[in-house]
Specification:
The chain is mainly alpha-helical. It has four helices and no strands. The protein is elongated and about 40 Å long.
Amino acid sequence: ELNDEEIGRITGAVLSGLDQKETEYYRLYYTEGRSFSEISEAMGVSEKAVRAKLARIKLKLKKRIIYFLNE
């Protein structure tokens, strides 16, 4: 089982793998709880593009979490 320090280290490492734009999408959706519509307006893209970008980010984060857990 992971302790709080290990969870914090992994979380930081995983999120640091996002580029600036991915970080913005992540922040808007997961931290601020914005809707796809709100994000599409803020980022100047379609809702379909927002959904696709967030799906790719989620997959990227999942892969990085698995990597760090298997270290």
